[in-house]
Amino acid sequence: MNIKLHTPKSLKAGSGMGSIKQFMLSLLATTVSIALTFGTAAIIDNNKKQSEKREIVMMVMYDMYNTIQSVQRADSMLHQSMLIQKQIAEDTTLFDSLRYRLPPLIPDAGFTETTEHIFSSSIETINTVGNVIFTENVAKFYQIRNYYKTTVCDSIINDFANKRYMSSLEGILDFSYFDYAIICNEFMHDMQRRFTLCQQMMKVSDEDIEAYCRERQQMEAGKNDADDANTKKREELIQLQKEIDKAKKNISK
Hints:
Order of helices and strands: HHHHHHHHHH
Number of helices: 10
Distance between the termini: 128 Å
Number of strands: 0
């Protein structure tokens, strides 16, 4: 069987071929436009997700960094307290002059739990980060931090609430600075290890942390300036009201 393909007369004349070519070009342009639109949208969406991921990671790393700084200060304060305790033990006549240097050396937790709550309470935040091991290490870090606050900071404050430790030579010499210093050092070591691991996983350098710290400090400085201005304005209003009240009393006289 012989099948013959007949070219339509319109295409033979050339007008149909031009229409098909124009149609194909139009189709190609539309396809490219759609691809570019969806491709660009996908790139923008991906860049947005990566930016959000980076911001969350840096926010958490900054919080971890500040926590470690706080624990290091506590470690130093406990060491200073032990040195004072040693001086008093070696020369008991120094008891009255040195004992009042101890309360200011009580470690303070020195951190807020805002970032921890944001990170831990939102599954969307965790999904944005998209790294299970990082999430587990951060959760463990915060767990350790809470243990540290309870077993070191809160416990020392509770112990100092017992006046015996401040009011007598025996009390100050019996205070267990050594135990707290050992516990604090263990917590600090564990926190530093997990912080370093999180840095490596999320490719966050020390320079990145330092830059983010400077940025946050600038933001905090701006906030403090605004707070100071607000306080000053409030004081001016209070003073003005006092002057009005004074003037009203003079009228009644």
